[in-house]
Structure formats: structure tokens, C-alpha cells
């Protein structure tokens, strides 16, 4: 499942590379920020995308739109960036954050006021909730948020994610579970759900 803003209006236009920044730059940057949650990283992958596009622009033969072709390059760059970040974290990070501690006490019981994991089929049915999820992703450890982005936002399959990030399927499920718990807590803290678990007004 992919969630992004509308593509530039000149979807069918075939522009010269020197026009790409003005025509497509903002859209590509917004897309990258929504996935990487960091403006600096987003700017870096967009620059890499444009450079790769310029170097290979003759490969675009008109199958689909030019912005769609560039978006395909950008998605590959984002995945590469997330994989590299995962490797760096594995080598250097000592992350003690455990989202389950936000929801459960030492005996494994729900803490007062905590929320259950958001049901997968309800996560993105409301625009308001999607905006909160996007914001809350920034508060999660990167290794948890990254697998959520690839699985839920990009719709990648488990084997593909495991291959790209070089992690096991069990490790992936643990990260996804913790991401969902962290998101549930964060979204709930912003008052989205009412006492019965529905959407707040």
C-alpha cells in the first residue's frame, strides 16, 4: 500500500533533465520525507535519484510517465538507504528502547490508559489517522519505523524486506510488532481514539 501526495500535473510530459528539479523536485522530496522521516536523508536520496536519472535518461523510452520512471528510481534509492541504515545500526547502535514497556507493566498487564495495537485493516482508513501515524513514525527507533514503512507503506513482501535489510523473518516480525505498539501508544496519546477504541471527533 502506498500513501503519497498527487503526482505533478504534467504527468505525460517528457522533459529535459535540466527541467526535472523544477517540475518534479518537490514531489520526489515529499515522497522521500514520508518514507525516511528525515529531510536531510530525503534530500540526499532525491539528489541521487536525479543524478541516476540524468546518467540513464536515454533508457526512458516512453513506457509510462517520466515522473513514474523517476519515482521507481527513488524507491530503489530509499530501499538502499534503509538497508545501509540498518547495517549501521546493527554495527554501532545500542538501542534500549522497548515500546512494549509503554503499554505493559512488569507483570505483562495493560497499563491504565494504554491502548491495544491498531487493527491492520483500520490503520489508514481515515486521513486524520494517517497523518498521525506519519508524525508518530518519527518518534520510533529507526529500525522499527523502517520495517513498517517497507511493509505497510511500500507493500513489500516479507522475504523481500528480509533480503534488503539482511534480517531474519522472526526479527522482522518483532520489529513490526514493536512498531505497531509504539504507534498505537503515540496515536492514542494524541487523543485520536475514544474510550471504546473508535475514532475521536
TrEMBL record:
Keyword DNA-binding listed: yes
RNA polymerase sigma-70 region domain residues: 21-87
GO biological process: DNA-templated transcription initiation
InterPro entries named in the record: RNA_pol_sigma-70-like, RNA_pol_sigma-70_dom, RNA_pol_sigma70_r2, RNA_pol_sigma70_r4_t2, RNA_pol_sigma_r2, RNA_pol_sigma_r3/r4-like, WH-like_DNA-bd_sf
Gene Ontology molecular function, alphabetical: DNA binding; sigma factor activity
Gene3D superfamilies: 1.10.1740.10, Winged helix-like DNA-binding domain superfamily/Winged helix DNA-binding domain (1.10.10.10)
Domain of life: Bacteria
UniProt-listed NCBIfam families: sigma70-ECF
Family as reported in the entry's similarity comment: Belongs to the sigma-70 factor family. ECF subfamily.
Designated name of the protein: ECF RNA polymerase sigma factor SigE
Species this chain originates from: Aureliella helgolandensis
Gene designation per UniProt: sigE_14
Amino acid at each position: 500500500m502506498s500513501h503519497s501526495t498527487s503526482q505533478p500535473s504534467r504527468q505525460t510530459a517528457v522533459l529535459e533533465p535540466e527541467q526535472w528539479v523544477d517540475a518534479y523536485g518537490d514531489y520526489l522530496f515529499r515522497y522521500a520525507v514520508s518514507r525516511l522521516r528525515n529531510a536531510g536523508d530525503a534530500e540526499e536520496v532525491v539528489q541521487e535519484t536525479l543524478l541516476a536519472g540524468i546518467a540513464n535518461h536515454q533508457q526512458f523510452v516512453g513506457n509510462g510517465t517520466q515522473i513514474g520512471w523517476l519515482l521507481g528510481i527513488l524507491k530503489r534509492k530509499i530501499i538502499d538507504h534503509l538497508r545501509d541504515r540498518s547495517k549501521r545500526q546493527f554495527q554501532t547502535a545500542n538501542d534500549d528502547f522497548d515500546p512494549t514497556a509503554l503499554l505493559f507493566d512488569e507483570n505483562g498487564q495493560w497499563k491504565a490508559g494504554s491502548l491495544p495495537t491498531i487493527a491492520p485493516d483500520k490503520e489508514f482508513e481515515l486521513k486524520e489517522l494517517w497523518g498521525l501515524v506519519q508524525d508518530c513514525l518519527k518518534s520510533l527507533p529507526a529500525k522499527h519505523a523502517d520495517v513498517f514503512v517497507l511493509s505497510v507503506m511500500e507493500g513489500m513482501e516479507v522475504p523481500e524486506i528480509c533480503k534488503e535489510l539482511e534480517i531474519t523473518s522472526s526479527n522482522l516480525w518483532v520489529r513490526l510488532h514493536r512498531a505497531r505498539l509504539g504507534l498505537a501508544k503515540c496515536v492514542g496519546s494524541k487523543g485520536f481514539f475514544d474510550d471504546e477504541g473508535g475514532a475521536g471527533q
